[in-house]
Amino acid sequence: MRFAHGLPVGRDRNSAETDLGIKRTSMNKMQQLLYSDDTPDALATKTADDTGHRVSVLFPLPLPKAYDYLCDSADKPPIGSFVAAPFGPREVVGVVWPSDDGERAKKKSKVQKLKSINQVYDAQPLAADLVDFIDWAAEYTMYPKGAMLRMVMRVKDAFEGPRMQTAFAATGEKPARMTPQREAVLAAASTAPQSAGQLASAAGVSEAVVRGLVGAGGLLKVDVDPDPPFIAPDLLRAGPMLSGDQQYAADFVATIIERDEHKGILIDGVTGSGKTEVYFAAVAAALSKDPDAQALILLPEIALTLPFLERVEERFGAAPAPWHSELTGAQRRRTWRRVAEGQARLVVGARSALFLPFPKLKLIVVDEEHDGAYKQEEGVIYHARDLAVARGARAGFPVLLASATPSLETVVNVDEGRYEAVGLSGRFNDAQMPDISLIDMRDDTPDAGKWLSPKLVEEVDKNLSVNEQTLLFLNRRGYAPLTLCRRCGHKMTAPGSDTMLVEHRFENRLVCHHTGFSMPKPSVCPVCKAVDSLTACGPGVERVAEEAKERWPNARIEVLSSDTAPGPQTMRAVLDAMKAGEIDILIATQVAAKGHHFPNLTLVGVVDADLGLAGGDLRAAERTYQLLSQVTGRAGRAEKPGRAMIQTYQADASVLKALASGDRDAFLAAEAMGRQELGFPPYGRLAAVMLRSPDEAALDRAANAMRAAAPLADGVEILGPARAPIYRLRGIARMRLLVKTRRNVNLQAYLIDWLKRTKPQSGVRITLDINPYSFM
Ligand SMILES: Nc1ncnc2c1ncn2[C@@H]1O[C@H](COP(=O)(O)OP(=O)(O)OP(=O)(O)O)[C@@H](O)[C@H]1O
Ligand SMILES: [Zn+2]
Asked: What ligand has the least distance to the C-alpha of 528?
């Protein structure tokens, strides 16, 4: 029997070393409690038989386990194969899964009659290391295995193989009767075979002209694969000459790649130090080592991917396979299929690329590893950086983490010897780090209704006079974050939600950034009916732009946020204009903060540094440090030195002082001490149990009952229940319990035990978030 893709029997599933290691436990009961809503009642009839092969099939549905079927084919399909099988009233496509021997032993005693699999697909089975990773990730995140598998099977029908498309290719013959229309079609077809529609529109003729050319001998019908293969990266192509530091780091990583073992490796270097070139060298090394090896580069934001794809193309002479939410259905299928075949060797993508069906993944790079965007907050809640490290640990390949401001988690992993680290000490080509200063807004107050302090205005003036570019950073979309009635004090909120409506003046609407609700700005207060009493409070980027345009009428000013530039293409246009020096002042949210290289940008002004510090989030200071380092790091990346001015009302806050003095290590040390004292991650484990219900009284009862059911355990502390900072969202009220444990406690096992003791309450949903980041 072939077990080409099967898991080795008796493998120690916990042998891989990460800080995420958890013990295997049966989670079925708990998962039924959590996800019972989604379990179809009519499951496959499980009764007995013993002819044919018995195989377990996991479906991409929120189910905790695989189900047994019979397979009548001569060969037992290997683990990872895609199959179609009857499930309840439907036929569902699932994946052959390792069977749970304990479960099977129990069932053996019963008389059984299993249903048969309908079809085994011809597609490449999922690799053993991916199957193993899905099992592990389900246990770690406490989501059902089937929900994890669904993340791999997001692309509909990809495993069915290509449905060939008809295209028309030029034969090279000229038909006897030529017309200008026919001439144009043949010219269009001369480059590559295309569909009738494509040729017709390229030539500006009807499809009838195209089809007519087949009969006339000028065109030939051919079948083409709708998912063209990716061009292989050119691994012999020389990258740029690396600096001494870069070469040292690249060699360090290359030795680990050579040894073919897992290591988490931090590439630590200030913004602009050339980390990207170092990990490109690592990608080249990993792909050169094995002709079938594949590599994945993860980026936190899709705004970054477009320019990045080009940078990769320049380096390797071929565009990588892209993966992000803006791809069309056809593009997604192409990447998925080509990755599954092993044909796409280099993938650049957002966090969900981690779940692509790589048959031979040998390296993952997590760029900007500290970035909060790696945490997926909807559906299955996971942190892509943590899962990437676990994926590498289990499959035995290195995972590179690049950052100028590594997360405390990663720094502690390095300090405690779990990860390796290499540093790049300065900026590439000796470009200077920007000179950062704080503007104390208590001393340097802007005029009423204005947001830019006299000092910052003076610096912008100077910059304009020497034709250098300025970035004004404010991490707030729209015109004003709060709309208030001057007469009765009413604050405009979204219906059924405790979220403030944000004014967007370009569209003259009030918008909720949490629910997506929007309405035209009313002229009358909905409560006291006063006319024209609604006032905008506080600034968003649009309001700062208004002030800038008033102050510098001759400057070329642009605003960039996810509203002003929806989609990566439009965003790209503004970023390109900035790069080309066609913008004098760019006013932007964090979309412009990361990864970009604007050679003539020499001044960065942070409009409100206090924004991220408000609220009781445990990572607030860390995030502020990271974001502001990143933003100020945009200044002076080329020949001209840069400077950054940070406006704040809290000039004494230690995080801002550390930022101004560039003392990252002092900041991290203070931050580490604070977290250690409180036993928060990375010095302890944390999980959030979120309860939600439209019925506030039921929610209260459920939360308190759950609190009361919490088992006493050494090293475990339960905090709450407390209302979420935004208590009501879209008519649903939310409460939260936090579980904080010592690091040596098996957090997942504790949660399983707790949930077992909790009686489900109708109408109240429970969600778990292991190592929560967002406290909204
Ligand atoms: N060895 C090299 N030869 C030539 N140019 C280089 C080299 N290394 C880096 N550069 C250039 O220096 C600039 C900064 O490099 P890079 O983008 O790799 O830095 P980074 O550390 O990834 O920065 P950030 O953290 O800000 O994203 C880029 O324009 C890059 O092309
Ligand atoms: Zn009012």
From this structure: 2
